[in-house]
Amino acid sequence: xxxxxxxxxxxxxxxxxxxxxxxxxxxxxxxxxxxxxxxxxxxxxxxxxxxxxxxxxxxxxxxxxxxxxxxxxxxxxxxxxxxxxxxxxxxxxxxxxxxxxxxxxxxxxxxxxxxxxxxxxxxxxxxxxxxxxxxxxxxxxxxxxxxxxxxxxxxxxxxxxxxxxxxxxxxxxxxxxxxxxxxxxxxxxxxxxxxxxxxxxxxxxxxxxxxxxxxxxxxx
Length: 220
Ligand SMILES: Nc1nc2c(ncn2[C@@H]2O[C@H](COP(=O)(O)OP(=O)(O)OP(=O)(O)O)[C@@H](O)[C@H]2O)c(=O)[nH]1
Ligand SMILES: [Mg+2]
Fold this sequence. Notes:
It contains eight helices and seven strands, in the order αβαβαβαββααβαβα. The chain has helices at 3-27, 43-54, 71-76, 99-106, 150-153, 155-160, 179-189, 206-214, and strands at residues 31-37, 60-66, 83-87, 116-120, 137-143, 163-167, 194-197. β6 (163-167), α7 and β7 (194-197) form a beta-alpha-beta unit. α1 runs parallel beside α4. It is globular, with a radius of gyration of 17 Å. The protein starts with a helix and ends in a 6-residue tail after the last helix. Magnesium ion is lined by residues 43-44, 72, 120. Residues 43-44, 72, 120 line the site of magnesium ion.
């Protein structure tokens, strides 16, 4: 079997399990978002703020994906009792989560008590975009410090996103960033994405983000 054939088999197997995961979530009436970004774009910080705001209104569970360490899980546990860490170094150190990892993780939760499952993928702007993991939508975080050209240089990640959150907006006064260029480049690769400008430090855009999350219902 050639390397290409093996890779195709891996993807097909992954897609089948992703469908199983999605079916389980639909059956349980749980909406699932898959958050992807380059390392450090602000995923966990946004989740700290998000979970604090959703407490009492939306029952959440979180799956944290990292190559190693439970650092992000430990940051979120004060805000949510259902946080499960996947470390991909147990599976060879993959740069992305795979559907089988999510399927196994579902067994760690009481699915009857969850409305929103949030998955923070491994920080990487390439690999996570290729792997369906059973989610209903993909959320891409893109921080101001990454530069205006990233949508053009990493088009696949930008293209698969349903929502693009431009993060760290509070840094705007300190950076030479052309926000109109950012908008233009996002539109070039994904004109249909909803774009929300946020700062986890000042709270800018978080109302719109939380309203979006509250509007989500599983498509079964
Ligand atoms: N100024 C500013 N800094 C932020 C903001 N959000 C996150 N940061 C900082 O960015 C750094 C990385 O944030 P994280 O939330 O850990 O990023 P991440 O995407 O979860 O990182 P990985 O999980 O390692 O990929 C930290 O120092 C945060 O304090 C923001 O809105 N504004
Ligand atoms: Mg993180």
